[in-house]
Amino acid sequence: MKPGSATEKNGRASLSRHRSVWEMRSDGWIGLVDDLSRLAILPAEHPERERRLTHVRAIVEQLAPVESYWAFPGGRVFGELAQWIERDELARAHQAARRIHRVLAARTYRHDVNTLDSDNELPSQIETDSERQAQLARPYFEVLIVDEMSASEEDALRRRVQRKRSADDDFIFDVVVVPSFEDALIATLVNFNLQAVVIRHGFPFRSVNHNDMLRRFLDGMDEGIEKMAEFERGPLLGRQIAQIRPELDLYLVTDVNVEAIAAQVGEVFKRIFFGEEDHIELYSSIMKGVGERHRTPFFNALRDYAKQPTGVFHALPLARGKSIMNSNWIGDLAQFYGMNLFMAETSATSGGLDSLLDPVGPLKMAQEYAARAFGARRTYFATNGTSTCNKIVVQALVRPDDIVLVDRNCHKSHHYGLVLAGAQVAYLDSYPLDQYSMYGAVPIRHIKQTLLDFRRAGTLDRVRMVLLTNCTFDGIVYDVERVMMECLAIKPDLVFLWDEAWFAFARCHPIYRQRTGMASAAKLCEMLKDPAYAERHAAFSEGFDWDDEQRVLDTRLLPDPTKARVRVYATHSTHKTLTALRQGSMIHVWDQDFKDKAEEAFHEAYMTHTSTSPNYQILASLDVGRRQVELEGYELIQRQLELAMSLREQVLHHPLLKRYFRFLSVRDVVPTEYRESGVDSYYNDETGWNNLEAAWRTDEFALDPTRATLTIGATGMDGDTFKNKELMDRYGIQINKTSRNTVLFMTNIGSTRSAVAYLIEVLVKIARDVDHRISDMSAIERRIHEKRVRSLTLEQPPLPDFSSFHFAFRGRSVEGRAGTRDGDIRSAFFLSYDDVNCEYIDMAEAAKAIQAGRDLVSALFVIPYPPGFPILVPGQVISAEILQFMAALDVREIHGFRPELGFRIFNDAALSRAAQATAARAALALSGRAAQPQERDGEIKAASTSTPAAETAQASSTTRSEE
């Protein structure tokens, strides 16, 4: 099957040219209205008339199959429009096309749907507030009907649906009828109004539409499906739609053995009906299914509470807005925010509300709905950000002296969480992108090598967790499934924490979803239960030499299904990429052993870090944000992706912009060895989205196209200057992350075409300013400018890897100092609290001391903003490479470094005492472990190859050589 093919064996369907379908539809209607307006006034003999009429017919031919996948304007209305054009009734056609386009652009068909049945008039645009409120009160959606029907049968079905409508219905829906398997897949992908699919019995496989743009969805379709019996296609289609858009409610209507089908595929369909016997039941089921996703239990409870008369004899004078309404001085607060905010402010946990610390009512339901939406087994809300979520998960799962493998470039909350947990930290190095002063992600080979190092040292049993950021700030995304599979092959009981703070939106889109923690955990869990996988693993493991480290590193490892446990956690900054108030975050859990091994500890950690007075407005916004994910997340993320690609293309092709700016592509940020697909660019006019799909399916690392990193070195400005003085101060454009020569623009679900247009306009202005400034430079000024450009584009300092922990902090047990990377940041962190243990040294003195052979050991986290990850952690040796990088930084904000004093480091006396304490703890740990078995929790047998005596000798030798 070709890369990017329409439907593959895992059920994913191609999104090739998806952006072009939506844009083509919008631009097609604009062009149609424009051409018809000119044709309507041109005399019959005008030479321009025939050319424009040919163009109009071409647009109609292109739009006709596309319009068949939406309920509005519908096949009948569009057919009438086409007939008017063919009969040369161009004035009438122009009037109809103009009104249809107005309604499509404003989406007013979502409210004014009844006029679609009028024979005389087309719907007009909503203009009154009352009509807008009516539209909001009864949201509109569409139901896809997969069945081969005649035009009269389709009209009869639509009339039947409309007759069932009631004023008491919470929603309004219309139907889209498609006749084939292929058409159903296309409609699922391109129609964002769909909320339910009804698959009826007996329909053909092939689509009659042969529009080239649509056929790209279907190239390479498995011929075996076409030969399949018609009654088998319905269940298969349901499974494939569920893979593409799992949020849709699926219903099957069949004329064959309904009981047997229900037993086989019941988990895919919400209901299965026999023939035509339950019209009313099907209609009610559709309304109920959408209602379940629309329901926001906690938001509704809070809104109802705000309407109740309440006497407050409790905390919060602000509750019900009383302290504001009774004030002569702060009434402007209510004017600014509105009274509903304060009417809903309360510390009550009863009266229809709930307690975040012990939810039993609407909050409990809201979290269960969130778990459903994000594909988790359980979900927990947080009101103080993902920083707290990260600390909760680490504290719940990591015990003192457990070893945690963590990306050194992860968010600082993880580092502080590991301090609090007392973990032994083994920092992993991401691959560097020196030319852009940024890091990528941690290669799987490096992770495996680190695990093998612990195995060789006899301490693999203490490795508890792998903690990685997915996706990174710059948009690098892991192959999550592969990382977990290969790690579990070496250590079957590993726990994974995926920091998806910037990736919460990924669940909404079929391309992104496959690389999320929750989707990968579900897939991995099912795979490990599959007898076919057990056979595959048996064949793999037969004769495999686990002692041959090189072979282990070079092989795609498979975990043992009898030993591996799927224990996956993901933290989401919901407020960063979805709709939620600031600090609204979630913890998602897919842990097979949660009840037995984590629940109590998780509860205690949650209690430790969660406020007893959580903000209810934040919780309500999380509930509503979840609703949006389930009802329109797919549409919003696809549009976000489109906007990002449009922004990239505008800069790529603009003659002035490309002189100074360039958006980094996947080949710039993912080295060739991590791109198995060989894809260099994710989108082009010839192949559409095929490259994106191929790369995200196969490559070790992928790039999120919505993270648009712009190189700016050619302007002579560094990232910090460009961000603050140009974008923010002059033009009011907000961004977050910069490097020495790049700035990062992130589209999100709130981005608009107008915002993208404004950004392009600003970049053009900045480029013109640079042009004018350069043209006005003297010869000396030009040389200075060129030197600056050369420094920013060609002379980037190498990014330093993690140096090492000083031997005084190289573990609480002697094995931790025997050739492994782990260290005790907790001891170092708290040792620095006492000033008697520390001194300061400036950059120049530090360079001289290192050259003289002195070990300089950081007493603090040193974190430049940007990039926002620690260059140094407590207990880490300061290397010459780190000094070189620090000297080249252009940022003003460096936490843990005082320019007037320099680095805070441990003095020699403190290091000596710390080394003695470490040795004492090591001896105590060794005596306690001497009688312990070498294997724990199903660890592979090859892990235990050294004896306690050998470990003691090795550690003593290492200590002496280091000292």
From TrEMBL:
The cofactor named in the record is: pyridoxal 5'-phosphate
The EC category is lyase
E.C. number, please?
A: 4.1.1.19
Extract the Pfam families matched here: OKR_DC_1
Ranges of Low complexity compositional bias?
A: 942-963
Domain Orn/Lys/Arg decarboxylases family 1 pyridoxal-P attachment site, by residue range, is 296-520, 565-753
Keyword Calcium found? no
SUPFAM superfamilies assigned: PLP-dependent transferases
Q: Which UniProt keywords apply?
A: Aminotransferase, Lyase, Transferase
Q: Does the keyword Glycosyltransferase apply?
A: no
GO molecular function per UniProt: arginine decarboxylase activity
The record's annotation in PANTHER family points to:
AMINO ACID AMINOTRANSFERASE (PTHR42832), BLR3474 PROTEIN (PTHR42832:SF4)
| Name under which the protein is recorded | Arginine decarboxylase
Per the UniProt record, the source organism is: Variovorax soli
